[in-house]
Amino acid sequence: MLIPIKILNPAAKVPVHAYNDGDAGVDLTSVTALTLKAGERALVATGIAIAIPRGYGGFVQPRSGLAAKFGITLTNSPGLIDSNYRGEVKVIIQNTGDKDFVIEKGSRIAQLVIVPVERAVFEEVDELPESERGDGGFGSSGH
What pTM was estimated for this model as a whole? Predict the structure, then answer.
């Protein structure tokens, strides 16, 4: 799939798959350097704008290595980029760790996955169809 991309900042990098075969996500990188103190969050610019095709969405997700090693996650994970959005891709990063975390220009800060999405139409009804789970909510499966 071809995704048109506009470079908005000379420090921006075109997203790429780390491994050519089998990767679902591409790495997003920061165009600014900053230190994220423990417990702090920041909106971090990537310096790119993209045109996702209609019928698809871009889901911005944490990088598992940053989460496991440093407690770095995304506050609104996954972040959603709609197909009609043409502004700069930015990432809300949060440091849940107990140490400051340094982000340098070019640091890989998140990953982007392009996924097909259906446009839902909702119909109001008096009753929903039965299901095995029914209205069992949080913890209803016993786990």
Answer: 0.87
Residue 29 burial (10 A CB sphere; 0-12, 13-18, 19+): buried
For 15-48, write each residue's pLDDT tens digit.
Answer: 988 877 788 999 999 999 999 999 999 999 999 9
Closest CA to 108 of 3, 51, 23: 23
Q: Which two tokens stand for residue 103?
A: 């982000």
Q: Which residues pair with 58 in a beta bridge?
A: 81, 114
Q: Which domains can be identified in the chain, with CATH numbers?
A: 5-116 (2.70.40.10)
96 in the Ramachandran plot: left (φ > 0), alpha (ψ -120 to 50) or beta?
Answer: alpha
Please check whether residue 132 is in contact with residue 126, taking contact to mean a CB–CB distance below 8 angstroms: no
**Residue 52 amino acid letter:** I
